[in-house]
């Protein structure tokens, strides 16, 4: 079977290892790339599902070389791969969608390159069953690649030989796995202190800048009415908005006070009927407890042997 | 299942039978007989009985609801009721035909012909010739030329007594026994027969005649054996077991035919415990008063006269007090769970003694002769009060007399509760050691029942505590010497009894306060056929000495004896210890007799002393054939007996590290606290934290540092994490400035989880001690909590935040408290540390250590020490370990939380709220996909701090199954259990096994790290520093787990370490329609055209092999 749904099936031959000598195959599912948010390179991209965990661009380059000849693969992106750096910057972007800021937001991307922490691994792994996007040089290559696969399905060559072999010809191009990988990782975990320091400094400067900006924005919001003519009320004095945490702490404090007051009012019984009611409640609670115990006991009874002394 | 109607008919039939049978007994009996039959009539119909019970229970329920005090708590009472309903055998169902059998036996015995008076030798010969029956005479055997004659005459009465008659039996594994007393007619006795065994010879002959008669008239109906009643060799009895050929089901009862003496035939005053009844043969005819008393002999004889009086006593008690019967059953269960029984080898305190004691305490025993138990006590109150009586009254030193004003007891070391009207010490079968143990057990149970926080029902009645290896610290098999030195004793003391008595004396004096309890158990004689002579204690048999250590004193090397000036005491000391005693001058200037033992483990020292004592006081040969059991478990620990000081060394290194940090000038913020969070710093890592200048500590010990709060921290979680890097770098450089022998390295972690802590500082001292420092900032919690609650963020970010929050809470809030608690208790209980390590090793050997956190294991073991009921806190690793296993095996984690009360301050309200929380969890998540085990302590009432990441349901179930099978093995093999067999790793249950290359497998890594192959490598210590904390297999496993989260569960043992086992998630095994985001590698399903895919096991295993590279030797696929 060469197709499943829209996907073309491409089995790969896995070379036997001493640890697992059984001949095995890994199945890739290929499809022309058609993402929800289209981009310019879509037409010459292939969407690949179920990539092996140890995939690298080099691996795929070798596979496509086997299929449609060398030099056709332009780039590739794996699922979960970090394209855009993470959270804090996004938070800012949400706030600053106004026209003026867009330029700066674009700048942020490049500024962040050195604020990222150093890599700890010499080679990323992919989650089992995950996908990737392979960008080829032109649209024709996409078609010819899929065609080549179909042709292979029809060819009468021996099963072992006709499929591309995984990892063939990439041995020297990618960092080794096994204990070497972990040893390298162990070394990379401890980066040079000077780089780290520089990295942290860069990050903090960047972060401070953003904080300031946020503050400025909040300050401005206090004075500028929005489209409907309302002015957003923010906490803080003339000097600047209060830190979120302070505001929250204050609020909690107030709530606590309020609660205490209420409690004092309700908890201390004053009238006789209140006392009586409380006593009644206690009795009801006792009965309820008893009923609950009974129920629990029934539950325990269901699991047999609970009440039979062990022998 | 049989259809209902015939069953009902049978029941009815039996009812009639029972009634007629009891009528039959009435004819022989007096008022007791009729009483018992009346009682039988009311209780034989089980249905009626149950109804009556239910009604009764309901009444009490209603009244107990508000009175509260009658029972411990509602739940406790309900459980007791439930248990009482379940333990009582259904007399009809379990013992079909018992009344017919009794009836038949009665008529058979009544039909036996009288035998005329015969001289002893003729009587023996005749019985042997005609029936091949050997008369079970007690030792010493009767003189053949004695002047008196033996005879048989029809019994004057035949009666059913014991717990069958008053219906206080409980279900048990062994056959239920019904006691049938055959009262011998006074005509065959003479007044003086109580002297010199004459009564017992006649009794034995009488029994042999009954056996002969029954065997000749009904040889096939029953199986006949002789047995000693309660192991008392003066009391042989005949046991009849129904040969039920008709019904397939084995009959669950046996009938004990007990010859009894005619009531009040022998004078009461002659058989008091202070009187002598065994006159020396050759000695001059002294006045009997000057001879030492023979209390055991007298009481044995007296008890033969007292069957009926006691039946009367118990009957009237059960008539007067509604709770009496249930109290007896409770007592009976309690005793059985603790291994006590009426038999001498079981301590001589069984349900009969319990019932008699309760009945007597209802009448007296209190202050000024008032009743100790008030009328109107509920069964539970009665039960508890009797325990209280046992635990608080020292009957050995202060004999209790009931209605015996004229009797003055003499001093002896056996306990005495003298029942005046019946003239018998009801505790006469007890030994000093069994009495001590009984009191201790009672004391523990009273403490348990007073515990208002936890429900102790299970430990009071359900848990069986009699298992020796769980109860005691060391067991010794002592061979019984074949010949005893001729010590003349006036009392009837078989060889075994006198030997164990002497052994106890010697051990008690020799072991002093090293041990808290000594128990000695002799072998039980098996029943024997009437045609063979009474069995003797064989050559091979041995005594079992069980010892409970006193952990504070057991490994003391020097014993201080009396000072040299106290001549008398010193001489005694020297006599006891022989050449071992030496005179020494001690630091405080005193000159004392003393003993010096060679250093070693506590077991080695104990063994030394024990062997020496045996050699000195018994035959030297014996000391060679002693078998000691108990050390085997502790010996399994890595580095046993070597590195005990390693924990303290690391602790000291930590203290100096802390001082150094505190003294640092120039820290940007004020230091608040430095807290240890590593198992190595709380005495609980499996391996000792060994380090030296050439070989730094392999796994740096985790430490947290917290600064005083400051507003200068950024108000953003990621920024906080980054700031920590700068702080750590600063600390590192400051430390190096202070002390240039320190190496510091900053490492990164959690690279793909930006919300979590991202950096740590490794600090390696010249001494080899290494620490891993992380910064604790309490702001993180609020920030993360805010993110979790923030509805604007997408699901994934919130989940990440939740995961980071739980990690934060565990590492920065819970672990410091936990570490401190465990470390404190490790110093409080010397055995806690090794027990934790042993249990951790057990989990590890069964490859569960990746799923069950170390902290959870520590909590489990801590519970065994802090809430040790029904025992005391373990005083050996063996006890602690086996009790932990028992706890796990019994633990129903589905419905009960593990609650550890570190400070003993939990209130019952808190416990209830923890229980409620668990119930709530189960309601939210009945499939137990998230929280499986709920382990709370006073630091963490949420109960999930250490169980959030596992174990999963599969692993938890496996844990229980493994513990259960271990407990079963223990039960089956008992003392012969090989400790190693509990630690064998089995990989057969897994789907596939990854064998690691020997270079990376646990054991060899261990060896290579402790011993260098080449001398010259030792010099290059730089290499070692680089590799501090390098664990390739762990890294590999972490990656595997991350890659195949939902597909494979991995198991690995860090200690044995040569394999990684895996289980496929069964949910992923089925083939399914293709979709893009399957969480596992898939392949097309062959044979169907539906376009389905399935898990591609081969591809995944090949991936695993590629990823492991040189670390993987081979992958073995089981399924």
From TrEMBL, chain A:
| UniProt record, GO biological process | ribosomal small subunit assembly; rRNA processing
For this protein, the record's InterPro entries field holds: RRM_Rrp7 (IPR040447), RRP7 (IPR040446), RRP7_C (IPR024326)
Region Disordered, as annotated, extends over 96-115
Q: Which CDD domains match?
A: dRRM_Rrp7p, RRP7_Rrp7p
Ribosomal RNA-processing protein 7 C-terminal domain ranges (all copies): 189-309
Q: Which interval of the chain is the signal sequence? A: none
Q: Which residues form the Rrp7 RRM-like N-terminal domain?
A: 6-185
Q: Which GO terms describe its cellular component?
A: CURI complex; UTP-C complex
Q: Which Gene3D superfamilies match?
A: 6.10.250.1770
Instruction: Extract the Pfam families matched here.
Output: RRM_Rrp7 (PF17799), RRP7 (PF12923)
The record, for PANTHER family, names: RIBOSOMAL RNA PROCESSING PROTEIN 7-RELATED (PTHR13191), RIBOSOMAL RNA-PROCESSING PROTEIN 7 HOMOLOG A-RELATED (PTHR13191:SF0)
> Can you tell me which family this protein belongs to?
Belongs to the RRP7 family.
Under which name does UniProt file this protein? Ribosomal RNA-processing protein 7 C-terminal domain-containing protein
TrEMBL record, chain B:
Which family does the record assign?
Answer: Belongs to the NRAP family.
Per UniProt, the keywords (alphabetical) are:
Nucleus, Ribonucleoprotein, Ribosome biogenesis, RNA-binding, rRNA processing
**Where would I find the Nrap protein domain in this sequence?**
178-320, 324-463, 469-618, 640-827, 829-984, 988-1115
A single Gene Ontology MF term assigned here is: RNA binding
Its lineage opens with: Eukaryota, Fungi, Dikarya, Ascomycota, Pezizomycotina
Q: Name one GO cellular component term.
A: CURI complex
Q: Where does the UniProt annotation locate this protein?
A: Nucleus, Nucleolus
Q: Which parts of this chain are annotated as the region Disordered?
A: 1-54
InterPro entries from the xrefs? Answer: NOL6/Upt22, Nrap_D1, Nrap_D2, Nrap_D3, Nrap_D4, Nrap_D5, Nrap_D6
Q: What is its main location?
A: nucleus
* Protein's name in the database: U3 small nucleolar RNA-associated protein 22
Bias class Basic residues marks the residues at: 1-12
Output the superkingdom of the source species: Eukaryota
| Example GO BP | rRNA processing
Native organism is Amorphotheca resinae ATCC 22711
């Amino acid at each position: 079977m060469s197709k499943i749904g829209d996907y073309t099936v491409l089995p790969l031959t896995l070379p036997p290892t001493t640890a697992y000598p059984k001949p095995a195959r890994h199945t890739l599912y290929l499809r022309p790339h058609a993402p929800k948010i289209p981009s310019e390179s879509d037409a010459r991209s292939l969407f690949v599902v179920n990539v092996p965990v140890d995939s690298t661009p080099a691996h795929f380059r070798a596979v496509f070389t086997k299929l449609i000849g060398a030099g056709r693969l332009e780039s590739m992106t794996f699922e979960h791969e970090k394209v855009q750096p993470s959270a804090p910057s996004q938070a800012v972007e949400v706030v600053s969608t106004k026209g003026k800021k867009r330029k700066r937001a674009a700048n942020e991307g490049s500024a962040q390159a050195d604020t990222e922490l150093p890599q700890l691994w010499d080679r990323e792994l992919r989650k089992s069953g995950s996908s990737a996007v392979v960008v080829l040089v032109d649209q024709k290559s996409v078609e010819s690649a899929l065609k080549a696969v179909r042709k292979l399905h029809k060819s009468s060559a021996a099963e072992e030989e006709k499929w591309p072999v995984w990892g063939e010809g990439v041995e020297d191009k990618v960092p080794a796995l096994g204990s070497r990988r972990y040893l390298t990782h162990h070394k990379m975990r401890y980066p040079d202190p000077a780089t780290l320091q520089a990295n942290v400094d860069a990050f903090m400067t960047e972060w401070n800048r953003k904080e300031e900006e946020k503050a400025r924005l909040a300050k401005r919001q206090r004075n500028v009415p929005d489209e409907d003519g309302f002015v957003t009320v923010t906490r803080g004095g003339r000097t600047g908005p209060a830190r979120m945490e302070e505001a929250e702490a204050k609020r909690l404090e107030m709530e606590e006070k309020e609660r205490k007051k209420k409690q004092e009012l309700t908890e201390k019984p004053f009238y006789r009927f209140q006392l009586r009611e409380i006593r009644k409640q206690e009795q009801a609670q006792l009965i309820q407890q008893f009923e609950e115990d009974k129920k629990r006991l029934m539950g325990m009874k269901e699991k047999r042997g609970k009440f039979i002394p062990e022998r | 299942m049989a259809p209902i109607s015939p069953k009902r008919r049978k029941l009815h039939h039996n009812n009639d039978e029972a009634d007629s049978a009891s009528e039959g007994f009435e004819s022989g009996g007096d008022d007791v007989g009729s009483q018992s039959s009346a009682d039988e009539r009311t209780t034989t119909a089980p249905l009626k009985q149950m109804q009556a019970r239910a009604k009764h229970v309901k009444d009490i329920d209603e009244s107990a609801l508000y009175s509260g005090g009658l029972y411990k708590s509602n739940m406790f009472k309900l459980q007791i009721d439930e248990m009482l309903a379940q333990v009582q055998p259904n007399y009809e169902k379990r013992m079909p035909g018992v009344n017919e059998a009794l009836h038949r036996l009665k008529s058979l015995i009544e039909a036996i012909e009288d035998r005329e008076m015969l001289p002893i030798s003729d009587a023996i010969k005749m019985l042997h010739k005609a029936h091949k029956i050997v008369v079970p005479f007690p030792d010493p055997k009767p003189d053949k030329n004695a002047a008196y004659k033996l005879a048989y005459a029809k019994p004057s009465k035949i009666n059913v007594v014991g717990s069958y008659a008053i219906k206080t039996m409980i279900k048990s594994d062994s056959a239920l026994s019904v006691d049938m007393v055959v009262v011998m007619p006074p005509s065959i006795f003479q007044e003086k027969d109580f002297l010199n065994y004459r009564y017992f010879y006649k009794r034995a002959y009488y029994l042999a005649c009954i056996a002969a008669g029954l065997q000749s008239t009904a040889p096939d109906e029953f199986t006949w054996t002789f047995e000693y009643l309660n192991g008392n060799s003066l009391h042989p009895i005949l046991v009849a077991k129904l040969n039920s050929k008709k019904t397939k089901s084995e009959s669950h009862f046996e009938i004990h035919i007990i010859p009894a003496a005619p009531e009040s035939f022998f004078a009461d005053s002659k058989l008091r415990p202070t009187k002598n009844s065994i006159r020396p043969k050759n000695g001059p005819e002294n006045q009997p008063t000057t001879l030492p008393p023979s209390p055991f002999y007298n009481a044995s004889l007296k008890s033969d006269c007292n069957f009926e009086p006691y039946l009367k006593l118990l009957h009237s008690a059960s008539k007067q007090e509604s709770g009496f019967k249930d109290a007896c059953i409770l007592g009976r269960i309690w005793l059985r769970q603790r291994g006590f029984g009426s038999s001498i080898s079981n301590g001589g305190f069984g349900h009969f003694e319990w019932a008699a004691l309760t009945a007597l305490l209802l009448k007296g025993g209190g202050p000024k002769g008032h009743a100790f138990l008030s009328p109107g006590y509920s069964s539970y109150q009665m039960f508890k009060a009797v325990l209280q009586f046992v635990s608080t009254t020292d009957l050995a030193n202060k004999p209790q007399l009931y209605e015996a004003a004229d009797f003055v007891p003499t001093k002896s070391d056996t306990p005495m509760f003298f029942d005046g009207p019946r003239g018998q010490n009801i505790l006469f079968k007890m030994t000093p050691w069994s009495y001590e143990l009984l009191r201790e057990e009672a004391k523990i149970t009273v403490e348990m029942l007073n515990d208002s926080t936890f429900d102790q029902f299970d430990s009071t009645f359900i848990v069986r505590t009699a298992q020796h290896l769980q109860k005691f610290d060391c067991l010794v098999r002592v061979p019984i010497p074949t010949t005893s030195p001729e010590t003349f004793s006036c009392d009837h003391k078989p060889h075994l009894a006198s030997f164990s008595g002497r052994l106890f004396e010697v051990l008690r004096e020799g072991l002093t306060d090293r041990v808290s309890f000594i128990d000695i158990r002799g072998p039980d004689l098996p029943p024997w056929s009437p045609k063979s002579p009474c069995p003797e204690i064989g050559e091979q048999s041995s005594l079992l000495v069980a010892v409970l250590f006193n952990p504070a004193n057991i490994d003391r090397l020097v014993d201080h004896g009396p000072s040299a000036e106290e001549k008398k005491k010193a001489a005694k000391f020297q006599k006891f210890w022989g050449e071992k005693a030496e005179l020494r001058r001690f630091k405080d200037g005193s000159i004392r007799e003393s003993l010096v033992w060679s250093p070693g483990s506590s077991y080695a020292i104990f063994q030394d002393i024990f062997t020496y004592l045996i050699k000195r006081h018994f035959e030297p040969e014996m000391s060679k054939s002693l078998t000691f059991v108990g050390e085997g478990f502790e010996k399994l620990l890595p580095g046993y007996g070597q590195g005990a000081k390693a924990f303290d060394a690391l602790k000291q290194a930590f203290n100096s590290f802390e001082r150094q940090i505190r003294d640092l000038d120039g820290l940007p913020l004020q230091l608040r606290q430095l807290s240890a969070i590593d198992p190595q710093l709380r005495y609980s890592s499996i391996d000792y934290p060994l380090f030296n200048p050439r070989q730094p500590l392999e796994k740096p010990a985790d430490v947290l540092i917290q600064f005083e709060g400051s507003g200068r921290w950024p108000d953003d979680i990621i920024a906080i994490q980054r700031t920590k890097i700068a702080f750590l770098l600063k600390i590192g450089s400051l430390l190096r400035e202070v002390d240039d022998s320190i190496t510091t390295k900053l490492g990164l972690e959690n690279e793909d989880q930006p919300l979590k802590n991202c950096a740590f500082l490794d600090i390696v001292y010249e001494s080899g001690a290494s620490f891993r420092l992380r910064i604790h900032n309490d702001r993180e919690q609020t920030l993360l909590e805010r993110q979790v609650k923030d509805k604007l963020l997408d699901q994934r970010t919130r989940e990440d935040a939740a995961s980071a929050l739980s990690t934060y809470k565990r590492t920065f809030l819970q672990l410091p408290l936990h570490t401190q608690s465990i470390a404190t208790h490790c110093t409080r209980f010397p055995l806690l540390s090794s027990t934790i390590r042993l249990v951790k090793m057990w989990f590890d050997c069964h490859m569960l250590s990746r799923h069950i956190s170390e902290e959870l294991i520590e909590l489990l073991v801590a519970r065994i020490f802090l809430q040790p009921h029904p025992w005391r806190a373990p005083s050996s690793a063996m006890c602690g370990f086996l009790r932990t296993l028992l706890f796990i095996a019994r633990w129903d984690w589905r419905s009960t939380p593990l609650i550890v009360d570190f400070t003993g301050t939990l209130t019952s309200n808190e416990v209830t709220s923890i229980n409620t929380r668990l119930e709530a969890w189960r309601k939210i998540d009945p499939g137990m996909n998230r929280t499986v085990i709920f382990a709370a302590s006073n630091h963490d009432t949420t109960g999930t701090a250490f169980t959030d990441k596992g174990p999963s349901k599969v692993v938890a179930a496996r844990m229980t199954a493994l513990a259960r099978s271990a407990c079963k093995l223990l039960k089956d093999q008992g003392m012969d259990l090989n400790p190693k067999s509990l630690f064998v790793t089995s990989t057969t249950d897994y789907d596939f096994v990854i064998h690691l290359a020997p270079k990376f497998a646990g054991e060899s890594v261990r060896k290579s790290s402790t011993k260098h192959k080449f001398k010259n490598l030792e010099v290059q210590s730089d290499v070692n520093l680089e590799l501090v904390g390098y664990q390739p297999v762990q890294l590999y496993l972490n990656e595997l787990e991350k890659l195949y989260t939902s597909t494979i569960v991995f198991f690995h043992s860090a200690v044995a370490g040569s394999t990684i086992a895996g289980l496929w998630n069964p949910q992923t095994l089925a083939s399914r329609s293709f979709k893009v985001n399957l969480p596992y590698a898939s392949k097309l399903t062959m044979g169907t055209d539906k376009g389905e895919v399935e898990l591609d096991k081969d591809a995944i295993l090949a991936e695993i092999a590629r990823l492991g590279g040189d670390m993987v030797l081979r992958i073995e696929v089981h399924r």
